[in-house]
Amino acid sequence: MHLRYSFRIAPTPGQRIELAKAFGCARVVFNDALELRNQARDQGLPFITDGELSRRVITEAKRRPERAWLGEVSAVVVQQALADCTMGFRNFFASLTGKRKGPKIAPPRFRSRRDNRQAIRFTKNARFAITSGGKLRLPKIGDISVRWSRDLPSQPSSVTVIKDTAGRYFASFVVSMDEAVLPEADAETGIDLGLGHFAVLSDGRKIDSPKFLRRAEKKLKKLQRALSRKQKGSQNRAKARLRVARQHTKAADARREFHHQLSTTLIRENQAVYVEDLAVKGLARTRLAKSVHDAGWSAFVTMLEYKAKLYGRIFAKVGRFFPSSKLCSGCGAVAESMPLHVRAWTCACGAQHDRDVNAAINILAAGRAERLNACGGQVRPPFAVAQADEAGSRGSAAA
């Protein structure tokens, strides 16, 4: 399987200028390609092929004075920007025709220099390399210092250089990695995700929600207030915007680290992990939107899924319409209603339930049942050898 390993990089002032040129060239090529294809659609012309598009927005554009600076950056950078535009249209068309699963995808949009994220990609054709001194060598940019936190498991097939909204630079390597199967564990767990507690496990453990954004709100309000007082277009406003962005990235980084540590622990301790398929987009449109985004359930579930695949564990989602909270884990009776303010309840069978623990137990049971069902449990009776005294075929019924 393919994984991404991201590391912080520290380009010099000169290298930052070269990276800014590369970001700009990739953005212009992407926008030019998008404009040509949009014009062809509006005029009722056939869809422009990839080869024709490359010739018009790269090869011929470099010969024109207004686009001559495209030759100052690596050719792979602009080719990859063109490939991104093509992939965006392919995903859009596949989404329209139903070939692509998941929610509908919008057509590609124009990129802006004010976008929160700027990125360029180098493939093997660009001949990027990691030097013996541990620096990242990029064509027409030079050797960039990398803050290595661990070794790469294999030679990277590509590297993406990213500049985020806080002005930080990262190198994201794509590497191929074989499954690292862990020793088999005896335990299995069901996870009920929530806002009061981030996760409640089927064994009764409750993991508190750190609420990183809520904790940073006081400082963020102060920084946002200072930003609103700065004159638009001034250097002081740019500095204030950067301070706000850095505070947001601190909360996001802390949340991501929390997700990584918890997901790794759960995958290592359990042979199978089951979670509920939450409608996060729907919940994010309610009055609890800020808390839902602060929890980051989708990112956490994604980590569980890929780590289970990497380490040879079992991962499954239980349907979102499964009544995990209203179902009694003892007798199987379903309560008529279960408002959110009810955190503990007693079933007619006499069983007393903590709402979240009971939901986690039911998720575990439902996940096990679905897995056994999907594994092809014996449905038909097994074949048996016919006995000698059994009736045999007597020919057709008309005989």
Any key phrases for this structure?
399 residues, alpha+beta, seven-stranded antiparallel beta sheet, five-stranded mixed beta sheet, 9 helices, 14 strands, disordered C terminus
- Please identify the oligomeric state: single chain
Low-pLDDT stretches are 377-399
The chain-level structural class is alpha+beta
Largest sheet: 7 strands, antiparallel
Helix fraction bin: 40-55%
Order of helices and strands: EHHHEEEEEEEEEHHEHHHEEEH
What is the arithmetic mean of pLDDT?
90
Number of strands: 14
Q: Reading side by side through the largest sheet, how are the strands ordered? A: 2-6-7-1-5-4-3
Radius of gyration: 28 Å
Describe the structure.
By secondary structure, the protein is an alpha+beta fold. Helices cover 40% and strands 18% of the residues. Helix 1 (13-42) crosses helix 2 (50-59). The longest helix is centred in the middle third of the chain and has 35 residues, at 235-269. The radius of gyration is 28 Å and the shape is globular. The model is unreliable at 377-399 (pLDDT under 50).
